[in-house]
């Protein structure tokens, strides 16, 4: 009886973990065998939502790493690397309980409350979409959001597989007017030059600690290293950054090197 009960608990744990992990696990993924025109798929329309009953634990663990779910999406505005997921998950249940439809404007995020609406802008070409975040993931170390096939197609990132993006949560209320949407976009001049990519290894209150980390990284020749200083709440903060890095592959390779050096949790920065 005890063995049966232990097995049952183990199976329950696996089911819960898989539900929360969303697009981190599953069969081989990709685009549909025959290209599908999704250019006319409309943006998600922000509307009042009921928080997912089981998609919003205070925290959860995937592959040994703990993620803390935000209490609110208000004010969330971050830049990072986007990926996308498609056929391997189409028709499967997402972490919010909804069924994933790769031809709708949805996405996955590790920490935003489910569901959350967000505007995602491709910083490399200026294209923008509004998505409903209803799933957990991506659990790749350097990715900020996993987009549906339709959203990725609209952003022009299917072939490349990744894109540098800005993710702004939308406070649910009345749908934004065209003027509000235009005002939320980065100025077009921002897309004249490719965005720059950095890995921030640490931020220190003591400049001596920042200098020691910089010297260590330079000794290991992981890439160009610099210290930038900001003032936060009246105090100086010294940030150690590697870069600019050429592309997403360079970011991933540098992250792998840092992990081997025992330097973990480097953060992607797109100024």
List the helices and strands and how they pair.
Elements: H1 2-21, E1 59-62, E2 65-68, E3 77-85, E4 106-108, E5 116-122, E6 128-135, E7 145-148, H2 149-154, E8 163-169, H3 178-183, E9 197-204, H4 207-220, E10 225-232, E11 235-245, H5 248-260, E12 267-269
Parallel strand pairs: 3-7, 4-6
Antiparallel strand pairs: 1-2, 3-8, 4-7, 5-6, 5-8, 9-11, 9-12, 10-11
Q: How does this structure look, described?
A:
Helix content is 22%, strand content 28%. It has 5 helices and 12 strands. The chain has helices at residues 2-21, 149-154, 178-183, 207-220, 248-260, and strands at 59-62, 65-68, 77-85, 106-108, 116-122, 128-135, 145-148, 163-169, 197-204, 225-232, 235-245, 267-269. The model is unreliable at 1-19 (pLDDT under 50).
Report how far the terminal alpha carbons are from each other: 58 Å
Profile the largest sheet: 6 strands, mixed, barrel
Strand order of the largest sheet: 3-7-4-6-5-8
Radius of gyration based on Cα positions: 20 Å
Query: What integer is the average pLDDT?
Result: 87
Instruction: Please write the string of helix (H) and strand (E) elements.
Output: HEEEEEEEHEHEHEEHE
Helix content: 10-25%
In the predicted model, the low-confidence regions spanning at least 5 consecutive residues are 1-19
Structural class: alpha+beta
Number of helices: 5
What's the total number of strands?
12
Query: What would the principal axes of the Cα set say about the shape?
Result: globular
Approximately how much beta-strand content do the residues carry?
A: 25-35%
């Amino acid at each position: 009886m005890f063995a049966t009960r232990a097995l049952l608990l183990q199976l329950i744990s696996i089911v819960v973990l898989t539900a929360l992990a969303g697009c981190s696990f599953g069969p081989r993924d990709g685009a549909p065998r025959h290209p599908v025109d999704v250019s006319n798929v409309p943006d998600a329309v922000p509307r009042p939502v009921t928080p997912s009953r089981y998609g919003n634990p205070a925290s959860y663990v995937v592959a040994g790493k703990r993620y803390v779910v935000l209490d609110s999406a208000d004010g969330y505005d971050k830049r990072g690397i986007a990926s996308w997921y498609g056929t391997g998950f189409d028709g499967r249940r997402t972490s919010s309980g909804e069924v994933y439809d790769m031809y709708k404007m949805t996405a996955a995020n590790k920490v935003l409350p489910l569901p959350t609406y967000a505007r995602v802008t491709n910083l490399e070409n200026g294209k923008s979409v509004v998505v409903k975040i209803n799933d957990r993931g991506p659990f790749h170390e350097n990715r900020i959001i996993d987009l549906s096939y339709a959203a990725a197609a609209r952003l022009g990132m299917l072939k490349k597989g990744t894109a540098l993006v800005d993710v702004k949560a939308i406070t649910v209320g009345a749908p934004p007017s065209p003027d509000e949407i235009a005002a939320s976009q980065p100025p077009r001049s921002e897309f004249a030059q490719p965005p720059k990519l950095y890995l921030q290894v640490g931020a220190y209150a003591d400049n001596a600690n920042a200098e020691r980390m910089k010297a260590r990284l330079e000794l290991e020749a992981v890439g160009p290293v610099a210290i930038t200083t900001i003032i936060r709440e009246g105090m100086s903060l010294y940030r150690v950054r590697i870069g600019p890095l050429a592309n997403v592959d360079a970011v991933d390779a540098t992250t792998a090197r840092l992990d081997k050096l025992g330097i973990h949790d480097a953060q992607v920065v797109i100024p």
